[in-house]
Amino acid sequence: MTMNTAIRQDYKQTLAEIATVLPPSRLEQLVDFARFLEAQIISESLLQEESMAEIEADNEKWDALLATDEGQSLLEKLANEALAEHQAGKTRPMAFNNEGRIVPG
Fold first, then answer.
1. Integer distance in angstroms from the first to the last C-alpha of the chain?
2. Nearest partner of 44 among 92, 99, 2, 88, judged by Cα
3. Per-residue pLDDT at 3 exceeds 70
4. Coil, strand or helix: which one is 103?
């Protein structure tokens, strides 16, 4: 077993032990945070792979879509869904660190 694998196993065991004593609401937060960290790694990886020209081209496509009636209808639908989730108490405030990155709230 390599050192990296041993360390990973130690972390897995530690997380499993922590998870067994957490109440369901805190366990849900632990999973949410793990997914947040996973998404952050994916985002950073994607940013490293995309050139500035590709990002600008993608932004132009979004601008063109949002300038259409279809795009505005889609935005309105998404806004209504978000508002309904908020009114149902399914949302949480966003928090940011000093670098402007989203952090668990």
1. 37
2. 99
3. no
4. strand
Q: What is the DSSP letter of 100?
A: S
In terms of Cα–Cα distance, which of 5, 36, 31 is closest to 18?
31
Alpha helix ranges (H) inside the chain? 3-21, 24-49, 52-66, 69-87
Phi, psi of 88 (to 5 degrees): -85, 0
Give the pLDDT confidence score for residue 40 in this predicted structure: 86
Strands 102-103 and 95-96: antiparallel
What confidence tens digit (pLDDT) does each residue in 59-84 have? 999 999 999 999 999 999 999 999 99
So what's the pLDDT on residue 54? 86
Residues in CB range of 30: below 8 A, 6 or more apart = 15, 18, 19, 22
| Residue 1 pLDDT exceeds 60 | no
Distance CA 65, CA 59 (A): 10
CB of 91 within 8 A of CB of 85?
yes
